[in-house]
Description:
Number of strands: 0
Strand content: under 5%
Helix content: over 70%
Structural class: mainly alpha
Radius of gyration: 11 Å
Amino acid sequence: SEPNGLWNIVHSGEKVEILKKKLIQAWASLSEEEIPANVASTVRRFKAVVKAKEGY
């Protein structure tokens, strides 16, 4: 399943640099079998939210 904790972090309004660190930590904790699909969908949503929040 997708790491829903990441999605909650993105919506919490924390600074982008903190988010990046947490994303890296969360992805590092996934097994190699889980990474491809999880990262692909999470990265798309993360980028969309960051773009909306940060204005770029």
